[in-house]
Amino acid sequence: MTLPIGTTAPDFEAETTEGKIKFHDWIGNSWALLFSHPKDFTPVCTTELGALAKLKPEFDKRGVKLIGLSVDPIDRHAKWADDIKETQGAAPNYPLIGDTDFNVSKLYEMLPASTSGDPLTRTPADNQTVRNVFIIGPDKKIKLVLVYPMTTGRNFQEILRVIDSLQLTAKHRVATPADWTQGEDVIIAGSVSNDEAKTIYPQGWKEPKPYIRIVPQPK
């Protein structure tokens, strides 16, 4: 039950804490991070929403718009925001979708198509599969999907690291190795022949194996 990487992110219209949006229009020419929550007033999600609010300047620097989702209605999101500010030191400074008809959750295959009823009667366990992160590019394609259990808070530093890699590799024909962080060496993509690589990297590269060609991170 997960949309594949490389597919177009489903478009939708939804009510949010910052007004009604049409998702693709809202993304515009930016990147987007859509992250979902099974229920308002849940402990792990409360910490996540606060953490992301504090990190928003880092996402802004990368041209990434943030948007959250919960199946609860907008008025509950507003009350939850007060708790988040009180306990985490920062309230959400990005829109939260009120997915009360489960439309977005179904489109993104986080809940079965048969899901219906009053969202307020559902428990967090009923919605435990609504715990995804989707990173979407300016081309509206899904670049990454992460699915977390309810008991494990998301690591937004890792998500920032992945965004750095996605944006670098979208611009340059390289790949990033395990545990790569901004400024470290990268790998020439396998789609680049040695003849092409000599043109792109006239200074050469380190080659511990013919299929591993290491170069400094492109600027």
UniProtKB/TrEMBL annotation:
<keyword id="KW-0676">Redox-active center</keyword>
<dbReference type="InterPro" id="IPR036249">
    <property type="entry name" value="Thioredoxin-like_sf"/>
</dbReference>
<dbReference type="GO" id="GO:0051920">
    <property type="term" value="F:peroxiredoxin activity"/>
</dbReference>
<protein>
    <submittedName>
        <fullName>Peroxiredoxin</fullName>
    </submittedName>
</protein>
<dbReference type="InterPro" id="IPR045020">
    <property type="entry name" value="PRX_1cys"/>
</dbReference>
<comment type="similarity">
    <text>Belongs to the peroxiredoxin family. AhpC/Prx1 subfamily.</text>
</comment>
<feature type="domain" description="Thioredoxin">
    <location>
        <begin position="3"/>
        <end position="168"/>
    </location>
</feature>
<keyword id="KW-0560">Oxidoreductase</keyword>
<keyword id="KW-0049">Antioxidant</keyword>
<dbReference type="InterPro" id="IPR000866">
    <property type="entry name" value="AhpC/TSA"/>
</dbReference>
<comment type="similarity">
    <text>Belongs to the peroxiredoxin family. Prx6 subfamily.</text>
</comment>
<dbReference type="GO" id="GO:0045454">
    <property type="term" value="P:cell redox homeostasis"/>
</dbReference>
<dbReference type="InterPro" id="IPR019479">
    <property type="entry name" value="Peroxiredoxin_C"/>
</dbReference>
<feature type="active site" description="Cysteine sulfenic acid (-SOH) intermediate; for peroxidase activity">
    <location>
        <position position="45"/>
    </location>
</feature>
<dbReference type="Pfam" id="PF10417">
    <property type="entry name" value="1-cysPrx_C"/>
</dbReference>
<dbReference type="InterPro" id="IPR013766">
    <property type="entry name" value="Thioredoxin_domain"/>
</dbReference>
<keyword id="KW-0575">Peroxidase</keyword>
<dbReference type="GO" id="GO:0005829">
    <property type="term" value="C:cytosol"/>
</dbReference>
<dbReference type="Pfam" id="PF00578">
    <property type="entry name" value="AhpC-TSA"/>
</dbReference>
<dbReference type="InterPro" id="IPR024706">
    <property type="entry name" value="Peroxiredoxin_AhpC-typ"/>
</dbReference>
